[in-house]
C-alpha cells in the first residue's frame, strides 16, 4: 500500500515521460493507448508540457500530469535524493516507466530502477537504433522493440464544456453554426515551414467567395506571418490570437476544415478528426505527418537542403511551391465530403 493525500491506496501507476513539443507528443498518442491496454487498472501519469497534458487528461487519455515546466524532470536527473516526497511515493507505485528522451549517462533510468520500478525503458526517439520511418512508429518501437510500419489512432475527445467555450468564442466573431467553418493557421514553429503570403491569401479569398466562414489563428510566434498575410488579402478575415491550447482545441472542434503547415496546431486538428490539409516543406511528411482520419498532405518539390542551417539560408523554398489551385481543389473535395457526411 502507498499513502497519497493522507489516504492508503492500492493504486498502481505507469509513468510516461515526453519532453517534446505539442505535435511530437500528439504523435505518441498511439503509444499511450497501447500502454493503457497493457495496464488497464493502472493510473497513467504523463511528464510533459502542462497545456497538452491537461488536454489529454480531460480526454481521459491519461490520469495525471507532471508538468514539464515544473521540477520533476530535473529531480529525476538528480537521483533519488533529489525527489520530492510526494513524487517519490507516486513513483514507487509504478510498475513501468517509459521515457522518450535522451539519457546518455543513464541517470533517469538509474533513478527509476532504484525506486523499485521493475520495467524501465528510456530511449531517445531520434536514436539511430530505431528503424521505423514515422515518428509515431518510433515511439511504439521503443515500447515494443520492433520496427512499426503502420500506426493508427482514435480521435481526441473534448468535453462538452470545452466545446461550448469554443462555440462561444466563434459566435463572438459572428459565426453561425449554419455556416461552414474553416480554421486556418498561416504560421508554424518556424517561418521556414510556411507558405508565402500570396499563396495562402489566394486560398483564403477563394473560401470567402465560396461563402465559407474563415477564421485565422495566430500563435505567439506568428505575428510576422499573419501580418504579411493580412497585407496580401483584399478581404478582412477574423483572427483569434494567442489562445491557450485547450481553447484552440475547443475552437478547432467546430471546424469543417483546417488548413495549416507542419505545426502543433495541425497535429491537434488531425487528432480531433477535423478534415485537415497540411502543407509540408522542408520537413518530411514520411517522418512527421499528422495522425488523423482525414488528413491530406501537400508539398512542393523535394527539399535538397542537407540540414536546418541550409533551410534557413534557402531563399527559393521550392519545397513549399504548392499551387493555390491544388490547395483549393483539395479543400473543395474535403468540404464536400464533410458536408455529405454531416447531412447523411
Q: Can you describe this structure?
A:
- Helix content is 40%, strand content 17%.
- It is of the alpha/beta class.
- It folds into 2 domains: 143 residues, Rossmann fold (3-Layer(aba) Sandwich), CATH 3.40.50.2000; 184 residues, Rossmann fold (3-Layer(aba) Sandwich).
- A hairpin with a 2-residue loop joins strand 1 and strand 2.
- Helix 8 crosses helix 11 and helix 9 packs parallel to helix 15.
- The protein is globular.
- The protein starts with a strand and ends with a helix.
- The N terminus is likely disordered.
What is this structure's SSE topology?
Layout lengths: L1 E3 L2 E3 L3 E5 L4 H5 L2 H10 L4 E6 L1 H9 L5 E4 L4 H7 L6 H7 L2 E6 L7 H8 L4 E4 L12 H10 L15 H12 L9 E4 L12 H13 L3 E6 L4 H10 L6 E3 L3 H8 L4 E5 L2 H8 L4 E5 L4 H4 L6 E5 L8 H6 L10 H20 L1
Parallel strand pairs: 3-4, 3-6, 4-5, 6-7, 8-9, 8-11, 9-10, 11-12, 12-13
Antiparallel strand pairs: 1-2
Helix pairs in contact: 2-7, 4-6, 8-11, 9-10, 9-15
Amino acid at each position: 500500500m502507498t499513502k497519497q493525500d493522507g489516504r492508503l491506496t492500492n493504486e498502481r501507476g505507469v509513468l510516461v515521460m515526453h519532453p517534446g513539443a505539442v505535435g511530437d507528443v500528439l504523435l505518441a498518442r498511439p503509444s499511450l493507448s497501447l500502454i493503457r491496454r497493457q495496464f488497464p487498472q493502472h493510473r497513467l501519469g504523463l511528464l510533459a508540457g502542462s497545456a497538452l497534458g491537461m488536454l489529454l487528461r480531460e480526454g481521459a487519455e491519461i490520469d495525471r500530469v507532471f508538468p514539464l515546466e515544473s521540477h520533476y524532470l530535473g529531480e529525476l536527473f538528480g537521483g533519488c535524493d533529489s525527489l520530492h516526497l510526494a513524487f517519490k511515493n507516486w513513483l514507487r507505485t509504478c510498475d513501468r516507466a517509459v521515457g522518450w528522451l535522451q539519457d546518455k549517462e543513464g541517470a533517469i533510468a538509474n533513478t527509476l530502477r532504484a525506486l523499485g520500478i521493475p520495467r524501465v525503458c528510456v530511449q531517445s526517439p531520434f536514436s539511430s537504433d530505431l528503424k521505423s520511418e514515422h515518428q509515431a512508429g518510433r515511439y511504439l518501437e521503443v515500447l515494443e522493440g520492433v520496427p512499426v510500419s503502420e500506426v493508427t489512432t482514435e480521435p481526441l475527445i473534448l468535453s462538452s464544456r470545452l466545446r461550448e467555450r469554443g462555440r462561444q468564442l466563434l459566435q463572438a466573431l459572428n459565426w453561425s453554426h449554419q455556416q461552414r467553418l474553416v480554421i486556418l493557421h498561416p504560421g508554424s514553429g518556424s517561418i521556414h515551414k510556411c507558405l508565402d503570403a500570396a499563396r495562402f491569401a489566394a486560398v483564403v479569398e477563394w473560401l470567402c467567395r465560396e461563402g465559407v466562414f474563415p477564421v485565422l489563428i495566430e500563435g505567439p510566434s506568428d505575428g510576422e506571418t499573419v501580418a504579411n498575410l493580412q497585407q496580401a488579402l483584399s478581404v478582412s478575415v477574423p483572427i483569434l490570437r494567442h489562445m491557450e491550447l485547450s481553447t484552440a482545441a475547443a475552437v478547432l472542434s467546430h471546424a469543417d476544415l483546417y488548413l495549416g503547415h507542419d505545426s502543433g496546431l495541425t497535429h491537434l486538428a488531425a487528432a480531433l478528426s477535423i478534415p485537415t490539409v497540411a502543407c509540408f516543406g522542408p520537413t518530411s511528411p514520411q517522418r512527421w505527418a499528422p495522425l488523423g482520419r482525414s488528413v491530406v498532405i501537400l508539398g512542393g518539390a523535394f527539399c535538397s537542403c542537407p540540414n536546418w542551417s541550409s533551410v534557413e539560408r534557402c531563399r527559393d523554398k521550392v519545397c513549399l511551391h504548392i499551387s493555390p489551385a491544388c490547395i483549393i481543389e483539395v479543400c473543395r473535395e474535403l468540404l464536400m465530403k464533410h458536408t455529405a457526411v454531416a447531412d447523411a
